[in-house]
Specification:
The protein has eight helices and two strands, in the order αβααααβααα. The protein is mainly alpha-helical. Helix 1 packs across helix 5 and helix 5 crosses helix 6.
C-alpha cells in the first residue's frame, strides 16, 4: 500500500459533500472573503500521517499473513485427506471432510470481512485518519475566524478548473498546526507573481494630437 493512496477517498468519506463552507452570519454573498486550501497537502506535511500510514500498512500485512496461514492449513489438510482416505474409517473421513469445509468457510469469511469492498481494509484508513482530519478542520476554523474568511473551499475534495494562488490559505493552516512554512512562503509568492491574473498590465496611453506652434501660425499669416 503506497503512502496516502487512500487519502482522497478518506476526505470524501469524511466530509459531507465536496466543499467545506464556513459562513459568517449576516454576511452578504457578494462581500464574502473567500479562500481555499488543500487538505491532502496539509495532511502530507503532518508527522502523524506517516505514523498512521505505517499502522495501516502493518495491519494490512498482518491480515494478509493470517489469510495466507488459513490457506496453508487448508492445503495441508487436503493433502492429508488425499493421502489417508483409503486407510481411514468412514467416521474419520467424514470428520476430516467436515473439518475441511469448516476451514474453507472460515477462510472465506475472514477474506470477506477484511478485504472485500467496504471491508475492514477500506474502513481502517478512515477510522485512523478521522482524529487527524478533525484536527485539521479545527485549524481551518481558527484561521477563518482570525483572518475573517467567510467561505473556504477544500481543493482536495473539489475539482477546480482554475484557482488564483493568492487565495490559497494552506500555509496559514500549516502554521496553525505548528509546521514550518518558511520555504512555502517563497514558493507561494513566486506562484502568485507568475499567475497572469496577478500581473499588472499598464494601460496604453492614447496618442496626443500635435498642436501647431505660434511660429507656424505667424508664417502662415505672412504668406497670406
Amino acid at each position: 500500500m503506497c503512502i496516502f493512496h487512500n487519502l482522497k477517498k478518506i476526505m470524501l468519506n469524511f466530509i459531507v459533500g465536496t466543499v467545506l463552507f464556513l459562513f459568517v452570519a449576516t454576511t452578504s454573498l457578494f462581500s464574502q472573503k473567500v479562500g481555499y486550501f488543500s487538505s491532502k497537502g496539509v495532511l502530507e506535511r503532518l508527522p502523524e500521517s506517516a505514523q498512521i500510514e505505517q499502522q495501516i500498512r502493518s495491519t494490512w500485512e498482518e491480515w494478509e499473513r493470517e489469510l495466507d496461514l488459513k490457506k496453508k492449513e487448508i492445503q495441508e489438510l487436503e493433502i492429508e485427506i488425499r493421502n489417508n482416505r483409503l486407510i481411514w474409517s468412514d467416521a474419520e473421513r467424514i470428520e476430516k471432510d467436515k473439518e475441511l469445509v469448516r476451514k474453507k468457510e472460515e477462510r472465506d469469511a475472514f477474506a470477506k470481512i477484511k478485504f472485500s469492498p467496504s471491508g475492514e481494509v477500506d474502513k481502517l484508513p478512515t477510522t485512523l485518519y478521522k482524529p487527524l482530519i478533525e484536527k485539521v478542520y479545527a485549524a481551518v476554523q481558527k484561521v477563518s475566524n482570525s483572518k475573517g474568511f467567510d467561505l473556504i473551499f477544500d481543493k482536495s475534495t473539489h475539482q477546480m478548473a482554475y484557482v488564483n494562488p493568492k487565495f490559497d490559505i494552506t500555509i496559514f493552516i500549516l502554521e496553525e498546526l505548528g509546521v514550518d512554512v518558511s520555504e512555502d512562503l517563497d514558493k507561494l509568492k513566486k506562484a502568485i507573481e507568475a499567475d497572469p491574473r496577478n500581473q499588472r498590465i499598464e494601460p496604453k496611453q492614447a496618442p496626443q494630437k500635435k498642436s501647431r506652434s505660434r511660429s507656424s501660425k505667424s508664417k502662415d499669416t505672412e504668406i497670406e
